[in-house]
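Structure ticket #2291
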Amino acid sequence: MPIKRVIVTVLDSVGIGETPDAASFGDVGSNTLGNIGRVTGGLHLANLEKMGLANIAILPGLTPQSVPSAVYGKMAEVSPGKDTTTGHWELMGIHLVQPFPLYPQGFPSEVMDRYAAETGRGWLGNYPASGTVIIEELGAEHMATGKTIVYTSGDSVFQIAAHEEIIPVDELYRICEIAREILRGEHEVSRVIARPFVGEPGNFTRTANRRDFSVEPPEPTLLDILKDAGMMVYAVGKIEDIFAGQGITHAVHTQDNMDGVDQTLIAMREQTEPGLIFTNLVDFDAKFGHRNNPQGYADCLAEFDARLPELVTALREDDLLVITADHGNDPTTPSTDHSREYVPILLVGPALPRGVNIGVRATFADLAATIAELLEVKAPAQGVSFAAEILGG
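Resolution: structure written out below.
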């Protein structure tokens, strides 16, 4: 039976071991899933285990299956980066040639002076930091002065934090749009991120009103190809932001991972036309990877694993469910940033065989090429399809 609808669920930052070029990114020894299992006494992921997660790599607490219920393998990244934008773009068929710029010393005065002038607000910070730490450090001064908190990380991001009672969310978004236009040319970071928070000094909490203002993809992605072919491209979570709205026919933003699963299930039930449902579940990365919290990460994985049967049960006869990731973020290493790792890929659906090993894919873009072949649309520029390996045709 031909595949008519593909549901891709990205477990943000759930890497499965360092890639051969990890040293070039400062990530030797990174293994998000493996190290979490090692330091927490073993992973408890019964449903992912049945699908074949432990057939991809040795994972403490999980047992390889003699016949996994899914097609399984892992993918390496070709593009010179390990950030969300680069990873998702490659999943949809783009290889970046130049990496996005990084700012380990903060942003230069030519950027910040223009930012202050055009937003009408001063700034605090302008250095790499954990988002939760910097609002504790500078939140009280921000509330007293109205100056925005600006910071970056090991990724190509310009993050702007503001208390929702000091700078309303809509105003923060306007400020981010101004920053996005300033950050072009040599300073074109991959994302400007609004980071609103609430609370009092000593007890600040970031809210779910985060929004990413991304660079537009430099060439058509699989999303554009599907949309141009008249197919559905339904974005769940921050997918719409990552692709700057390009190639998307419907979008819904989410509060957290469980809301993301809920919205995916709603889309699977209500969006019956052929095409793609594309979901990002960000909590693994944002709440636990960047905060070096392996136990929280393990619990978050278990929470998703418990919901996985709902996604599988919701599949129609002509559906394909893909579980993968966009990079690593090992919470057991000193770094609080992303890591250069392989990502797992698990594929399941009524039309697929059980237990096929698609091996190590040379690029994330192989997924885009495969989906294009399955949905019978033009293939993106990058990637090699493995459709024949999983369908035998």
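Closing remark: Residues 109-213 form a domain with the Alpha-Beta Plaits fold (CATH 3.30.70.1250).
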